[in-house]
Amino acid sequence: MDITTNSKNTTKSISKPFAKIAILLAISLGLLWFSEDFSLARLFEFDTCPDGRCQGSVGWVLWISYAKDLIQPFAFYFFICLGTRWLKTWQSRALLALAIPTLLEIGQGLYYQFSPSRYVGSFDPLDIVMYAISVGVAVLIEQKVFAKLLKFW
Question: Above 70 in pLDDT, residue 8?
Fold first, then answer.
């Protein structure tokens, strides 16, 4: 009878980490897929004009400019949460999730001083604000919602 109890406890203790991994992967990869492959034409109209200086609708501009800046660092934070073995505190995970996109954004600003031949994006300080908001919301959801709703978190 002792063997049966141990196998049940082992099954329960193994299923909790797998549940957390499944939730983290579903959130992070799902949001990344959504932000990259979602067809914007379904929701936002893009104005077409013959002179080539077309301006998208407000929804289009906000999606292209700032929605991905909110979604992707949020998803990146939850992806980093898979590495709790190496990044034990939420502060270290949040710092990494904020630092990498911020450094990439700064790199966009510096790139044109060295090689202006290819377009790699433009530096926008508001993007860094969006990254900070996104990571902050991700930390709040992990610490306040998931930690309270899911006992194994």
Answer: no
